[in-house]
Amino acid sequence: MSTLVAVEPKARDRTTEILSANSLSSVVRQVADDVSPSIVTVYALRGPRMTAPMRWREEAKLPQPFHSPNHQHAASFNSHSADDQGSGVIIDRRGCVLTCSHVVENADAVFVRTADGRKFHAEAVICDPQSDIAIIKLEIAENLPEAKLADSDDLSVGDWVVSLASPYDLQRSVSAGIISSTRRWVASSPHPLIQNDAATNPGSSGGTLLNLRGEVIGIIEGAFTTSGEFQGIGFATPINIARNIAEQLQTKGYVERGYFGFETQPLTPEMASLIDSSVNAGLYVKDVQRNSPANHAGLREGDVITKFDGKPINQSFDPATLTADTEPGKSHIMSVLREHKVVEIEMRMQQPPREVGPIQSEMSPNGPFEYLDSSLGLGLSSLNTSLINELELPGYAHGALITQVVFGSDAYREGVAAGMAIARVNDTTIHDVDEYREVTSKLDRKKPVLLLLQSNQGKHLVMLHTSRKENDGKGKN
To answer: Which residue ranges run through the membrane (predicted)?
Structure first.
């Protein structure tokens, strides 16, 4: 008779597990420490500079829509600033920052703040909206810490990644995850993206996705969400693609890419059978642009593309493959089903026509002000008790009230806003517009000016550099 002996399960070696976890933590910590100096927070300013009370005051002058008695009035769209905050990475020690186009495009002023707290204004911003990549050339920047770039073609699903960005303006925020897909096509991108589950939130765009060696493998684009919050699906542009785009933006000012000039829609088996019983898949040509390469090659609306460069188009074929190779001048062969016959069409990609937009010039104030200091870009008016109450300034507030800030001026770039009062200029107290004008007329305009500003948020100092304009004068009443 045998005796049954209970066998105790082998105790898990917790020490080994802890050492393994600590090892990964150490790697992530080292990556963050090494790369943080090259990460910047990007700020894009758009529209007129106003304090919130000044904006509400200006909106109150506009005709208001009718609201029923039981309708609770909500702040209008214009009450919200069009300013944006994102992230970026220094890729050139002489001051070139790589970021996302949607963060900085159409901005009136852009500046960045480095990890050590320094502030640099943009000398130039060049965007490529199609790829959502942009570069920022910084003013008076040199010897900046640049990040190391990896080869994103070496990535594999399951690789650990570290994200480093400034979500919600929380600088040097670190998150970790794994790569879910190395080539995820999404409708909004002309190239495949890196899908990962490292945290991605508003303000992360333009930040870096890193490998465990501390090399940039991707530029964070955004996340897929149905709730507005992160749901574990983040996307990044592979650094090989971003690097190529950045180089073209730096050297040419635009990205050279080809296009065909037609639009398609995948056919389901049922849809395909209604066109021709011999096919169960294909790309239906729903539009052909006039004077496009497709138009010149003879492609027609209603054609069904069944092969692309010899590759059959089935249910798993990704339509983005048609434009994945964007080299202008390269020829491609398409097999097209037309009127129950197969036609071979050779199509050569061409550079798309470039749209030349208006050049944004420096704008002057167009609102009411008693005096325009054009060297600083400020329209000024007298401050009275009524305005002090409307703009939520302290009862003891004094000085010259800023009612306009010139687009493109140093004041605009430094965040000076209408609704602020200038309480002091350098070491002199200011009580009204006349006193401001008298004091500033004696200043050496080759030197910066130190202003003490008062707003509904308190007082703060700002140092402004004057422009070359010296034609100060009276404005509109």
So the answer is: none
